[in-house]
């Protein structure tokens, strides 16, 4: 079962600027980049650091503390020190234009 929850309007997301939201008590970083919207768990798999404070580039989000970069599509790190993936979640867009709803489900990992 997957429960999609509205987290924001599409127009609230700036390209390559992560937005930290909570979905059913789970901290999630929502990222609009390269024409798509991704949702990744906000906590780095290396230490308790918010990924939303990192930079987005080439469909990856970089942890600002030690520099591991996680693929927004898979959650996998592309380099040390992190070795474990971060959960990523399915995203749905409902509607059109800036008012379209961005929905995320944390009950299943994508
Ligand atoms: S806390 Fe994120 S790479 Fe170390």
From TrEMBL:
CDD domains: Rieske_RO_ferredoxin (cd03528). Pfam families: Rieske (PF00355). Keywords: 2Fe-2S, Iron, Iron-sulfur, Metal-binding. Residues 5-100 form the Rieske domain. The keyword Transferase does not apply. One of its GO terms (molecular function) is 2 iron, 2 sulfur cluster binding. It comes from the Bacteria. InterPro entries: Rieske_2Fe-2S, Rieske_2Fe-2S_sf. The keyword Iron-sulfur applies. Transmembrane segments: none annotated. This is (2Fe-2S)-binding protein. The lineage of its organism: Bacteria, Bacillati, Actinomycetota, Actinomycetes, Kitasatosporales.
């Amino acid at each position: 079962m997957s429960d999609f929850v509205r987290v924001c309007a599409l127009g609230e997301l700036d390209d390559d600027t992560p937005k930290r939201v909570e979905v059913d008590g789970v901290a999630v970083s929502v990222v609009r980049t390269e024409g798509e919207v991704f949702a990744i768990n906000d906590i780095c798999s290396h230490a308790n650091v918010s990924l939303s404070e990192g930079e987005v580039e080439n469909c990856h989000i970089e942890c600002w503390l030690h520099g591991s970069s996680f693929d927004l599509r898979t959650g996998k790190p592309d380099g040390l020190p992190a070795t474990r993936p971060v959960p990523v979640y399915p995203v749905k867009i409902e509607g059109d234009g800036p008012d379209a709803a961005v929905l995320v489900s944390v009950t299943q990992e994508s």
